[in-house]
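Run: sequence + nicotinamide-adenine-dinucleotide -> complex structure.
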Amino acid sequence: MSGCPATARASSAPIVSPTESPSIPPSGTSSPHSPKEFTMTDTANGLLRLPAQIAFGLNSLDGLAGTVSALGRRAFVVVDPFIRGTALFGEAMESLSAAGVEVAICSEVVAELPVPAVEAAGEMARAFAPDVVVGYGGGSAIDLAKLVALLARQPSPLSLYYGENKVGADVAPLVAVPTTAGTGSEATPVAVVSDSERELKVGVSSPYLVPRAAIVDPRLSLGAPGTVTAYAGIDALVHAIESFTAAPWSAAWGDTLPVFVGRNRLSSLLALEAASTILGSLRTAVSSPLDLPAREAMSYGSLLAGMAFGGAGTHLSHALQYPIGALSKTPHGLGTGLLLPYVMEAAFAETMPELAAIAVACGHRGGSDEALAMQAIDDVRSLSKDIGIPNTLAEIGITAGQLPRIAELSLTVKRLANNSTLEPTHDLFMTILEAALTGDRSRLSR
Ligand SMILES: NC(=O)c1ccc[n+]([C@@H]2O[C@H](COP(=O)([O-])OP(=O)(O)OC[C@H]3O[C@@H](n4cnc5c(N)ncnc54)[C@H](O)[C@@H]3O)[C@@H](O)[C@H]2O)c1
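>> structure
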């Protein structure tokens, strides 16, 4: 299912000298390169936070009733309002009724998840007292379902749970059914909301928010419009590349690990496969919405990217998007996708082996580590352009005068700002933002 842009060069020189010390192979045995060709700096430690069951594949939705009824007889279903009207959703609900599951449906999914809407949905769920919650839709519906599963069992207000590791274990089991290929929320421990008291979106992150089961059926994203596909899909690529290029694991083993521990041995396997798969399929998924192999590849890639970043975390594109999204009112994926190539260039020297590994996983061969790493950035840039991601912050209405405040706010999102290989400083963030404002990359490190 993987494969990258048709621009791949065709020679087979290793990306580093064989005399350099090998370390952990970045991908599985199906990878097109020998593990000894790499000098990546992964630690020996690994961490994944995953659902108890992940079902992936065409028609896997047929397993919904069995999965839900194994968890209880009363299901509170949070569904995207558009998706609620689709035939497949109707059939899925009929299958639940046929299995003897009593269903309550909530389709009050408001974009960006304003907190009052989340509290209201939580209140409805508490009144219904579900055994199980189902999240069916894009990342917004699944994130809402995660928080409903929390509020169905634990007290309001939601602000009690902002940040990391504030959620106790008593959360209703959640079955996540994504209809976009992007957020990976079906496999992650985080949900993101907008609190009008704060200038930034806020994350609620806890291992207990990981869905109990995920059902990833590529049929559900078939036919989604180009912009939905592009913004969700590029976000999945950002998850893959940022978890692969995050600061290596440095957490100490202890009672409570941070929710996001940085790049690690297990996440890297998934992240590299995700990056090459998405780079090879997103263009087609956007240009040909009914292309089933491209949809399958995107669902697979975004799932793997979610599995990777659910433990490793993401970094600077995400930290910078939070205030940019709030100011420009642009979709999450548009912002992270716009920023990604600038962030990759800013950390070019620190992440060259990883960037080169991405290029090799995409089939590029020959040249130095540096040339391959540049190729990876070029591939990302050309994909973004082809699927209509704006190239500059100016195009989405951000002005030079807003940059210092954006940098300041981004620095406060510590779980993201501190997860880069670069030291998070106001100067660094301004350099990236200034480059992204106009597209002038001359001050970035490459
Ligand atoms: N929890 C996580 O791990 C995580 C990660 C990244 C992003 N997010 C969050 O996810 C949200 C974005 O999610 P998203 O990109 O999936 O978009 P979304 O859920 O906000 O949906 C975007 C639009 O696409 C439509 N849509 C969804 N599926 C469709 C389909 N199959 N066909 C046609 N239209 C469809 C929706 O009706 C909506 O209008 C943001 O709130 C972001 O903060 C969460």
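>> summary
The chain has 15 helices and nine strands. The chain has two domains: 59-216, 224-438.
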